[in-house]
Write a structure and sequence with these properties.
This protein is α/β, with parallel strands linked by helices. It contains five helices and five strands. It has one domain: 60s Ribosomal Protein L30, Chain: A. The chain has a five-stranded mixed beta sheet with strand order 1-2-5-3-4, covered by helices on one side. The two termini are about 30 Å apart.
């Protein structure tokens, strides 16, 4: 059964891992990332009391994932993360990050994009928020291989951000979704399915 996490509001140009890298649309500014990832709080309405969101329960679940160490996130936990993102309409961006073939090593040509993300997550407007860094693959290869590779690449991005920008690792949840969330369901091998997503898990 496939899981689906639909990117919200902003999508970066996507390209296949190992393809010729192109500058331009994928090189987004840190400011555009900040705006895209800012929490979408509902406007206050005079005379009405909005029903509270289940933030407490969701917050506790997210905190459990970010503080439990190196144990892999289970299929059930990934499903719960997808549910939270969809129900709370959390801001998410897609971006192109190139890695070496069959590897989690970020290519030098993608450091500009990752550095822009690091500057965005260091911005005072996003400081203290918890973010999910999600790795996705297409359907080429086995489920197990794709899951392992997506997890390694998500951790690689997180580790770079922690090392280069001194971000709190407890606020960066690296999750690999493998081929569970194909963006282009009708074309499982499409380039668009290979991507990294960043989601602001605050509400």
């Amino acid at each position: 059964m496939r899981l689906y996490l639909v990117p919200l509001m902003l999508a970066f140009v996507l390209a296949p891992m190992g393809a010729t890298e192109k500058a331009g649309a994928a090189d987004r500014s840190s400011e555009s990332m900040v705006r895209a990832l800012q929490s979408k709080k509902p406007p206050k309405m005079r005379g009405f009391n909005a029903a509270p969101a289940p933030a407490g329960k969701n917050r506790a679940f997210i905190d459990k994932l970010t503080t439990r160490g190196t144990r892999a996130i289970t299929v059930e936990e990934r499903k719960e993360l997808v549910k939270i993102v969809e129900e709370e309409n959390l801001p998410t961006v897609d971006m192109t990050i190139f890695f070496d073939f069959n590897s989690a090593k970020i290519r030098p040509s993608s450091l500009k994009t990752v550095d822009a993300l690091g500057k965005a997550l260091s911005d005072e407007r996003l400081k203290g928020n918890t973010f999910m860094i999600a790795g996705h693959t297409d359907a080429k290869g086995t489920d197990a291989y794709n899951q392992k590779l997506s997890e390694a690449r998500a951790r690689s991005v997180r580790d770079y951000l922690v090392g280069a920008y001194k971000l709190d690792p407890k606020l960066l949840l690296a999750v690999g979704f493998g081929e569970e969330q194909l963006k282009i369901e009708d074309d499982p091998l499409a380039d668009e399915n290979r991507r990294v997503q960043v989601t602001n898990l605050e509400k």
